[in-house]
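Hi everyone, sorry if this is the wrong subforum. Our group has a chain we'd like a structural model of before ordering constructs, and none of us has done structure prediction before. Sequence below.
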Amino acid sequence: MIEVKGLCKSFEERPVVRDISFSVAKGEVVGLLGPNGAGKTTTMRMLTGYYNADAGDIHIGGKSISRSKREIQAMIGYLPESSASYSDMMVSDYLDFMAAARNVDNKKEAIERVVSQTSLNDHFYRPISVLSKGYRQRVGLAAALIHNPEILILDEPTSGLDPNQIVEIQGLIKGLAKEKTIILSTHILKEVEATSQRAIIIHEGKIVMDKSLEEISNMQKGASGIRLTLKGIVDNLDSLIEKEIPGVSIAGVEFTPSGETLISITSNRDAKEASLDLYRLVVKNQWLLLELYREKFSLESVFRDLTIQNQKV
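Answer:
Right subforum, don't worry. Here is the predicted structure as tokens:
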């Protein structure tokens, strides 16, 4: 459905997107994840044809955006981060206007459909200016859906919403995912976990990971993480553990204000065997053990490893 190859974009000679390539299958929901300034919005705008790429190409439905922009834009519903609308218009008038702008044949039927999809029935004859931000976001989504596109591109769809509104919009996206191909960008990890099947992480304009959420959750089958918490401050603990227990290394040691030692350990051995060896070492040295458990990889831990810890200082 969507093929992105070697996409590059710079502004004033500053590279923002650097040689990005990925594909999205029909019916797939993909979360485009990254810290602020990673290049997510620029990528979205190139996908919609709003920006022209400096290099690379985008194929959607077998067509190249560089040669068939209008045809591709007709296949896409786009919700920008700050969804623009005419606040002095009523919802009904605005959706009628958007249907006309999209050359929708049966405007009445299309408007009824999107109002039902976005649960705007009770607000249909209200001015957009009096709506909450959550409902204004729904109006923007209804406008993106008015021409019944095959593909939805949503840029930070829950930005600035309160927790209840976030849950509502996420539920709406999950409902739309049953019949649409969706790419949504966000820096909120829980949003991807709640709505998407796959995560693409962008950092400093490059893709640093592209995996399904299932693959991410199974990443602990390789190198394993172990968390050890001891009561009291234990000096030289990292060197002692690495000396006494083969196949493990210390990822970090932290001392808490309450007088605890927190150790993050990685192991290329079986996690159960490594944990048992750690327990024996704790008993041997008569340390006061508070916690010993295997850390499961999560989208959050992977995101931190690929972005925050590698951030330029």
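For your construct planning: The longest helix spans residues 163-176. Residues 17 and 205 are 4 Å apart (CA to CA).
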